[in-house]
Amino acid sequence: MLLSVVLTVAPTEPTTAPAVLGRAVHAWALGRIATVDPALARRLHEGNGLRPLTASNLWGTGRAQDGRVSLDPEHPCWLRVTTLTEETSAAMERALPPPGETLTLGDARLVVREISTDVAQHPWAGRVRYTDLVQRHTLAAGATPRSVTLRFASPTLFRSQDRDLPLPLPDLVFGSYLRKWNSFSPLTLPEDALRYASECVALGRFRLHSRLVSFEQSDKGAHVGFTGEAHFRFLVGDAYWTRLMRLLAGYAFWCGTGYRTTAGLGQTQMVEGWGRGKGEEARRVGQ
User: What pLDDT sits at residue 274?
Assistant: First the structure.
């Protein structure tokens, strides 16, 4: 089971908090999992490989000033954690705090107002099984897909030779999804999907902005990423491979894109359509 949990939170009184809290959200999630499955929490913490868990920054806070954001009890904000395996999803769900409990992120104490695990409750929440994703994106009737659009909601980047690559190149984007899918799904996808993404998927229209994100004081630990939307065209209209690309794009909602998805980077949605007016919400189809 894939799980996306959204916690709506607010302080008890007006305060400020660090603008970048993705690592704190990740640490909080591991701490909660440790209360129900200490061995799993240790495995999730150790090593440098892919992790079956992502964490968001604190969203809905407004613009940062001097590295901090203002928090107000009258304006709740929210955070998100996703889990990519049956074991991790089950532990996360058992470990969720009840509404009214207080959690600490950085130096901010926040009260949990609401917990959402269904898209009907929050557009970034939900649950689904890998088999359901396969059914939805590869086995459903309909015309052969010719493109897909992704929205990168938080700074997104890739790393190569100790350098940031803040560009949504098709092989990097779809390759990151394929690696996580084959690491955590019970259903293995062919490695030739990466070859198709590299040779037969083209970056088309895009609306992107560069973003600097720093996990430390000053610019130490800083990375340059991108946010916005990118439209990918399938140059070879083979139904099997194009549907597989749509499957991986749908998986992005759960696994995130690129580097440091456990620390708030790479939060991604697959959306329907392109070029919608400012303020108009594109329909998410990633679940």
Answer: 63
